[in-house]
Design goal:
This protein is an alpha+beta fold. The chain is built from 5 helices and 4 strands. The radius of gyration is 31 Å and the shape is elongated.
């Protein structure tokens, strides 16, 4: 009937090496370093994207609160005072603002907004981060309300916002 063709003997065939095995050790090392740098770069982009504050529309109550918080964080008192109503601006001097501005490091989280009789309350949680040379520091959080009203330019504070207190601004 038919003859069967002999099967090739693969046990004697030369083994094929992968491209990585054919490279020199220094090339493999450079490839490893390049891959590590690529992974670190990707991680940095992801962290920078996730950690970035959302830029709120400054013509909204929430955006006005963000403008205030960024201004005090940057010690930009002129911008901070522009968020005040004329009455609050008259009661709260530059000196009071400079002396009362809060901690060096904090973060805020928007919790909600409520309208009430011509004003809007922006509810936020503020977390204050502090360092202490002896005890290492820590943080604490507090909830606060920012009270604003509409103005020709958007929104303005009608009550002293955190970290100011009423007694500091003539209330």
């Amino acid at each position: 009937m038919g003859e069967q063709s002999p099967q090739p003997d693969h046990s004697r065939a030369p083994r094929r090496e992968g491209w990585l095995r054919r490279t020199s050790p220094s090339t493999r090392w450079l490839l490893g370093v390049g891959l590590a740098l690529l992974v670190l770069s990707a991680a940095a982009v992801i962290v920078a994207t996730v950690e970035r504050d959302a830029d709120l529309d400054p013509s909204t109550p929430e955006g006005t609160v963000q403008t205030w918080l960024r201004a005090i964080a940057n010690r930009d008192f002129a911008t901070a005072r522009r968020t005040f109503s004329p009455e609050l601006r008259a009661d709260c001097s530059d000196t009071v603002l400079r002396n009362a501005v809060g901690p060096d490091e904090f973060r805020a989280t928007l919790l909600g907004t409520t309208e009430s009789g011509g004003t809007v309350e922006v509810h936020a949680e503020v977390t204050v981060v502090f360092t202490d040379p002896l005890f290492g520091g820590g943080e604490y959080s507090l909830e606060t309300y920012f009270v604003l009203r509409p103005s020709a330019g958007g929104w303005e504070f009608v009550q002293p916002p955190w970290p100011l207190y009423g007694w500091e601004c003539g209330e």
